[in-house]
Design brief:
mainly beta, globular, 5-stranded antiparallel sheet, 144 residues
């Protein structure tokens, strides 16, 4: 399940989950000036991951959201890659976006013209699946 985002400068970013050294990892690469960059490992450590989502916020940060299995449950996590000049591609710390005893999966991330991000996902709670939506400016990851 790869995800794609085009940033304001026209760069195409792709994220996907790959398998390397006997573990799942999240990778990212960009298409700019007619060529692909080398893959960047975006996950802070190997894990059990499901699906990625990408979008650029109004501050010039590329947000990556994924679901990670922790203690038998799927929770949403995010981090951003600073694309602004002088930032040299610095990653933010990982932020946990959900904290629910049921799975939080099938997430999608989109950016509005104002740079606001909208995160939608399916959450299973009390025997029922519902769709949740959270919006944020992108300065910090949305909190659960």
């Amino acid at each position: 399940y790869p995800s794609v985002a085009v940033t304001r400068d026209g760069t195409i970013w792709v994220a996907w989950i790959g398998y390397r050294e006997r573990a799942e990892r999240i990778f990212l690469r960009s298409w700019q000036n007619g060529r692909w960059s080398e893959p960047i490992e975006a996950s802070p450590r190997p894990g059990d991951f499901f699906r990625t989502a990408l979008a650029e916020d109004g501050s010039g940060r590329l947000w990556l959201v994924w679901s990670a299995q922790e203690n038998g449950n799927w929770e949403l996590q995010a981090r951003s890659l600073d694309l602004r000049a002088g930032a040299q591609g610095k990653w933010s710390a990982v932020a946990r976006l959900s904290d629910n005893p049921g799975p939080d999966i099938f997430h999608a991330l989109a950016a509005g013209k104002d740079g606001r991000l909208a995160l939608a996902w399916m959450s299973f709670r009390e025997g029922q699946a519902d769709v949740y939506l959270r919006t944020f400016q992108g300065r910090n990851a949305p909190h659960h």
